[in-house]
Design brief:
The chain is α/β, with parallel strands linked by helices. It contains 15 helices and 17 strands.
Length: 489
């Protein structure tokens, strides 16, 4: 689980930094920053000459290596100057560190690409560098000698504040990736509770963990029902961060922590069932956000809740046809035990709605395969009850490069989760609008008049096509940066 934990920042010139390689950028029109021009002079004008001859196009993330007497120079294309945005510099940062890892450069020094010195550009560069450096090598014992980890990146120029903040945020994303990538016999509900307590101690948060007996006793019948088939101890985890006056309404984050999902009695096909270790990525989003909050200590109030269990088909497992009673008293007809994520979230949403007065609630879940059919691995499906809040999510999405797409929660869809023998059923109309049905079900457990947005991350939590600052495979940590931006962190 190697990644850069911190970036060095300096105002020193690139040529004065002792590194294994240095890097500068070039736009499509051939323009260079002041730092880039200095390196070009050091190379006797080779960069400009290569561009003039067409050997370098300056296309976004194109890389060319030159060799000076001092060290290699990695020249990265920045695209068109008038289209150079934060997502561009994020991708450039990822491109650089991945090239450094391939070439086995332990220490790389780079400019603040494009000469952008504002905090948002510094933050984006840091995110690209740290996220792009991420590798998950924990179990590769045979190839240990072949592995190479980037040790250090020094950024010359740019915003120190932005770079420091971006490093912290990206480290939180990498932490979430690690949780998701470990197998289900390592990342258990107990492990999630342990990590929450560690974060809590560092961030001076109140952390409460309810075991099976406790959450069953207080009326979390949906979580208790899903957890009935596993001997692995389930947990309901609460984290409270009070960074300002308690009279200020907390922002509430709720995560699905299904650490392994066999589908229960409605068992999944064997093919790709191994990927169901990722069914806890909603909880990883929440813990990744709280990890960042524990470090930055923003002046906001945040409450986090995670329902965590396995979904197995043991002798005591819940069954299709069972009726469960959620924490808010609503009854649920179970028609498919593989629609379990919405059940454990129902209790968490009910609990935070009752015991806090949320400014808003976000919930995160690898909820439906249907969202993958609709949006692929490109975008997260969202839906909710408050248009202003959804617009904030969309604006943050544009800033962080984490795409979202809104689904409607019309009355007709909500009627499809009504049951004839209970208050609601845990699936909608057969073969129709499965992602929306999941959201419509969850809506039943959110307190009235509480702004709420549901994030279905089943398509984006893992499996996306590799991008320059994304992992080669496995958990992505998607939407953590988006959520922190919405919260003003």
């Amino acid at each position: 689980m190697a990644h850069l934990s911190k970036l060095n920042h300096t105002t020193d010139t690139l040529i004065s930094i002792k590194a294994d390689a240095v890097s500068v950028g070039i736009f499509e029109d051939g323009s260079l920053t002041a730092r880039g021009k200095t390196i070009n002079t050091l190379l006797n004008g080779q960069i400009s000459l290569a561009h003039k001859r067409g050997d370098i196009k300056g296309k976004h993330s194109e890389t060319t290596i030159f060799y000076s007497e001092n060290c290699p120079v990695i020249v990265i294309g920045l695209g068109k100057a008038d289209e150079f945005e934060t997502e561009c510099i994020r991708k450039v940062g990822g491109t650089l560190v991945k090239k450094a890892i391939i070439k086995k450069y332990a220490h790389v020094a780079c400019e603040n690409f494009g000469g952008m010195s504002s905090a948002p550009f510094g933050r984006a560069l840091a995110e690209g560098l740290v996220l792009g450096s991420y590798q998950f090598n924990d179990y590769l014992t045979k190839k240990k000698d072949e592995l190479f980890e980037l040790d250090k990146v020094t950024v010359s120029g740019g915003s120190r504040v932005g770079i420091d903040k971006g490093s912290i945020v990206a480290s939180g994303v990498c932490f979430a990736r690690n949780l998701g990538n470990h197998p289900g016999n390592v990342t258990t509900p107990t492990r999630l509770a342990h990590e929450a307590k560690k974060i809590g101690r560092r961030g001076k948060m109140k952390v409460s963990v309810f075991d099976r007996e406790k959450f069953t006793e207080i009326g979390m019948g949906a979580l208790a029902g899903v957890a009935a088939g596993t001997d692995e101890p389930p947990k309901f985890i609460l984290m409270e961060y009070w960074g300002t006056k308690k009279s200020v309404k907390p922002k509430v984050l709720v995560g699905k922590g299904l650490t392994f999902d066999s589908g229960g009695i409605s068992i999944k096909p064997a093919a790709k069932m191994d990927e169901m270790k990722f069914d806890m990525c909603g909880s990883a989003v929440v813990l990744g956000c709280m990890q960042v909050i524990a470090t930055l200590k923003p002046k906001i109030n945040v409450v986090a809740a995670i329902s965590s269990t396995e979904n197995l088909s043991g002798a005591k497992a819940y069954k299709p046809g069972d009726i469960l009673t959620a924490y808010n008293g609503k009854t649920i007809e179970v028609l498919n035990t593989d629609a379990e994520g919405r059940l454990i979230l129902a209790d968490a949403l009910s609990y935070v709605s009752k015991h806090y007065d949320p400014a808003f609630i976000f919930d995160f879940a690898t909820l439906t395969g249907a969202v993958l059919v609709a949006l692929g691995h490109i975008a997260t499906g969202i839906m909710g009850t408050n248009e202003k809040l959804i617009e904030k999510v969309k604006k943050s999405s544009a800033k962080t490069g984490e795409k979202v797409w809104e689904f409607p929660l019309w009355k007709e869809y909500c009627e499809q989760v009504e049951s004839k023998i209970a208050d609601v059923k845990n699936i909608g109309a057969p073969m129709q609008a499965g992602t929306i049905a999941g959201g419509a079900f969850l809506k039943e457990f959110v307190g009235e008049d509480i702004p709420w947005v549901h994030f279905d991350i089943a398509g984006t939590a893992w499996g996306e096509k590799e991008k320059s600052y994304g992992p080669k495979a496995g958990a992505t940590g998607n939407v953590i940066r988006l959520v922190l931006d919405v919260m003003g962190v």
